[in-house]
Amino acid sequence: MILSNKRDFQLTSKNKKSHYLRVGFSLKREIFFVAIGSIIGGFTMHLPRILFDITTGTQYLITLLVLARVVGSDSPEVGFALHITVATIIGIVTGIFLHKVIKFNISKIKNGLIYGIFAGVVVFAVFAIPVYQLFLGPNMVELLAELDPEMTFLEASELVNQNFVSNLIDFFFMHIIWGLTVGVLSSLLTRKAGANYRCHICDIEFSKISTYEKHVENVHENPSPSLNRILILGGGYGGVGVLKQLQEAFQSDPEVSISLVSKDNFFLHTPLLPEMATGMLASRHIATPIRAFCKRARYYQAKVEQIDLNNNKVTITRTLDNQKRDLEYDYLVIALGGKTNFFGNKNVEKYALTIKTLGDAITLRNHIISILESADQEEDPDVLSKLLTFVVVGGGFSGVETVGEINDFVRESAEKFYRNIDVEKIRIVLVSAAEKILPEIGDLGKYAFEKMIEGTR
After folding, report:
1. Would you list the DSSP string of 76-134?
2. Membrane-spanning residues where (predicted)?
3. Considering the domain 347-455 in this protein, what is its CATH number?
4. pTM surpassing 0.70?
5. 396-409 tens-digit pLDDT
């Protein structure tokens, strides 16, 4: 969600102390709301003039006919539709101006009225008056003379000039009606569906103010015994996946509290680590802040020290200063991920580089570059052969992806930057305990093997 400027509001209610909350507004939604208000305003601003045409015999219909001729039509309905289209465009422009330039808070009805009057006056002065003087007036003279053969062009011109002031007054009040409609509707829609309300204590947000108020009452003022506390351990695919579903299911339920604990404050797209290790992607492309997902949940960056299933309690340690804290729960989700399995091979465990974290990917990249630098200077063929041999252990998704990226990275780097390295002497080895790679995907594994052999020449 794109957030515009944020404001602090103080809410007060009966028998409650005041609480400060952070209110965020969606720029896209509010521009949409202003556009909707402008379209409806385009209808409402015409109603008084049409009513006057019916009751007093005024000729506002001629204005619509002049507008219709802009697109080559003689139908007043076309002129009306054109005016609605222009109102929509103006609404979008004013919506962008509202948020990008003056950063005006339209969520309050009073502010909506102020903005509506301001927008109506500005559009009248900047748009309506020039259009009337340069286009509507001259074309209205021509249309009057055409509709009434007995009226000369001079008489039609005098009639338009006589009605100039009254027409401008009509246009002024029409644009005020348009502006007030835009302001009030935009304000109401923003309050209803355009804002999110964030508790500054828990750092979680709600889509409805009523849910926020219930949260304050149930959690901070009078803790409710019926409050369901859900605790998620882990910020990987499992933890974040569950978090998204829980937030969607309980967005408006004040009886549910959600918390997430992860030692890293970012969600890592681990399948893309090989691309980062070889420089195809930057770290920012595969890491997303955990807090970006925690809309309805509270986040703790900490390590899980102990899980007490008997007492429904988890002990966590804060990363910065190792301060311990107990978190109680009613429902526990354990999604802490796994560790690299060396299957009892002590030598691999001792000497191999893993690729599990951002740090692992950076270490691997630096190590490969260091090896190439040393190989470029090495004259002993035996030592050079060892330096130019790269071994990846594991024939699953991670191993195959890693060996492919290393192969491309090493060979392309040697060709472009390391002139003393013979590319034909580079050996890329994949070690797998199974008879074939990628057994998870069946026959496609055989196809992948053939392509990999082609790529390694």
Report:
1. HHHHHHHHHHHHHHHHHHHHHIIIIIS----SSHHHHHHHHHHHHHHHIIIIIHHHIII
2. 20-43, 80-101, 113-135, 171-190
3. 3.50.50
4. no
5. 888 999 999 999 99
